[in-house]
Amino acid sequence: MTEITFREAITRGLEEAIEADESVFIMGEDIGEYGGAYSVTKGFIEKYGEKRIKDTPISEAAFVGAGVGAASAGLRPVVELMSISFSLVAFDQIVNMAANLRYMSGGQIKVPMVIRAPTGAGVQLGATHSQSFETWLSEVPGMYCACPSNPADALGLLRTAIKSDNPVIFAEHSHLYGSRGDVPEDYYEIPFGEARIDRVGSDLTLVSYGYGVHILREAADAMAEDGIDAEIVDLRSLSPIDYPTVVASVQKTGRAVMLDTARRNGGAMAEIVSEVQERVMDWLDGPIVRVGAKDVPWPYNRGLEQDILPNAEDVVAAAMRVITF
Amino acid sequence: MEQTEKPRITATGLVRPVSNGPAPVSQSNNGFDASRVPVLSESLDDSELFRMYRLMLLIRRFEETCGQHYSLGNIRGFLHLYIGQEATGIGAITPLEARDYIVTHYRDHGHAIARGLDTNRIMAEMFGKNTGLSKGKGGSMHIFDAPQRFMGGHAIVGAQLPLAAGIALAQQYMETDVVTMVFFGDGATNQGTFHETLNLASVWQLPVIFFMENNLYGMGSAVGRVRHRGSDFSDAMGAYDVDVVSVDGMDVLAVREATQAAIDQVRAHGSPIFIEAKTFRFVGHSFADPGDQYRDRSEVDLWRRRDPLVTYPKRLLEYGVVTESDLDDLSASVDAEIEAAVEFAMNSPNPDMSEAFDDVYA
Ligand SMILES: Cc1ncc(C[n+]2csc(CCOP(=O)(O)OP(=O)(O)O)c2C)c(N)n1
Judged by CB atoms within 8 Å, which residues 156-195 of B form the interface with A? Predict the structure, then answer.
């Protein structure tokens, strides 16, 4: 094991792929000369050249669409969006093209493309730059959506993403880039749809993904002081969702709280709670409760933004509602 | 970049290239001064000239037959007929090599036939059958044949343009000499993707041909009502330093010549070219549109007088490329092919319900 940052994990995954496979190339705004908005691809252009590392115009629809085209013609593009908020400008290319092409061509076209995008609120960027559209995109069939919470998962999931013959949304919460974690020395991949039990517990199941897992850990630590033993399930991908693991955990604990870092209304957990309760009704000792961001556009003001964001206290409060039900 | 030459619009509506790059690819003769040259085409032999006519007629009859089957309820959804634009599609697609890519929009059956795709399987797709090119899951607007490098059939106006740029990017990346041709209408030029893709193709010098079929209307919107500068397309392309070739889309040989030259140039130099073919759809935008509310009958009639299905065989006869009896035989053989396609489509099974869940993921 070596300890690296989340950023370094992604960088490593990209470099491995570029070196291993001639058909992999990276494209996005300011990923080359500038080194990437979050410095993930720093130094790449000097090392790998302009053919493999393509700076694009500020033209999301065109370069995401060009990624789809390049993928359909045999390459494996990894496209970087500066923010998942900017996916809106390319939504048609992502949803109508990348995800639909295979199906509507009767299986003739494959689109092995990864769209990497920083996601999440909390750094006072205001309404246009703080969104978490991985929850919207995870609903789209024909596409996968990975949301790693730590460096080891980021590397393992990125390997899977780049090798996948399907389009993949790879959502990287911006709070995580500097976070550290151990990464195995030996090569490994993490398949999509395999959740990870981040913490074993018996009283209550907490479910999230990405940065949400860190909020859950804080909440679980707080609850442990009060003698409540929470289990944490890290989904790792929002498409597909590992229902068996979630269901098994909730069957064991009889209670669950599910956290979105996106807006609670229409978040991924709205779907997951609904599905899980259908499967575990008989085991439940209380309602499954959702926690998420409040239902307003993201405010700039720090106080307001922090109030809108879900935090560990919100999770604990939700847990207490379930436990005292 | 400074323009060395102002775009000039000639009496026939032709726009000369604005760039000082390679020479203008072709000027249409509209068929009017055809008698001044001893042969109909200096570059195409009689069998190719005849083959082009066969494909043209095949499209026309295919489209008419689709119309009938739409009325019968055998074809549903949207149906955008290509009637009137056949000379453009045939002139544009027949000079492509098998290794070249085609990307197009929802008005795609004409292009599919021009590419020589299996008529049976195109028709079966129209009928939603599982023998269709897209297994009945695409429909008339989403025809794909990947082995023939026919990459759709795209029904969001303008969305196919970035896709084509990406395919061209892959060719540049893999160092092939493959050309990608993307079709779209005048209406699509108002989409952001059009401008974004032209810019991308220009800065990256992608081997792509932007082929605009300017049929003067986007649904009911005359190009002059919705586009600054109306039908003059030289300006926008000048902004991206992409060569513009304008050609008479009703003259199949002019289109073929212009496109052949463009293909040669793109293959050799790898940079993008924009072709505008002025053409007209004789029928409504889709089968739901009678096509008579937003344009005068006289305008339609004027264009109908230039129907390539009338003018082209006439030229073939005049130049002795074909005889009347050749044309009769051809007509019978095209009818037989369409009839067989309908029968194939009719007799093909619907997709099994389980197939709804296939092809979502690789
Ligand atoms: C994004 C989008 N907006 C609107 C439509 C509806 N629509 C389909 S075709 C069309 C007109 C397009 O005209 P043009 O590009 O000139 O092509 P033509 O149909 O004349 O071949 C419109 C408005 C659509 N399919 N996609």
Answer: 156, 159, 161-171, 173-174, 192-193
Domain final position from A159, A183, A207: A183
Please choose from B161, B191, B219, B233 the residue to mutate so as to test ligand 1's pocket, defined by most ligand atoms within 8 A of CB: B219
What are the pLDDT digits (tens) for A90-144? 999 999 999 999 999 999 999 999 999 999 999 999 999 999 999 999 999 999 9
- The answer to whether residue B35 is domain-embedded is yes
- For tokens 């039900």, name the residue: A325
pLDDT in tens, A26-59: 999 999 999 999 999 999 999 999 999 999 999 9
Q: Do B167 and A70 touch (CB under 8 A)?
A: yes
Residue A284, pLDDT > 80, answer: yes
Closest residue by Cα to atom 22, ligand 1, is: B219
Q: What's the structural domain count of chain B?
A: 1
Task: For residue B95, give its domain range.
Answer: 12-341
Write down the H helix ranges in A23-150.
44-52, 60-72, 91, 101-104, 134-137
The complex's ipTM works out to: 0.92
Question: Do A312 and A254 belong together in one domain?
Answer: yes
Cα B243 to the center of its chain, rounded Å: 19
**Inter-residue contact A188 to A135 (CB < 8 Å):** no
> What single string gives the DSSP state of each residue in B184-225?
EETGGGGSHHHHHHHHHHHHTT--EEEEEEE-SEETTEEHHH
Above 60 in pLDDT, residue B116? yes
* Domain co-membership, A238 together with A264: yes
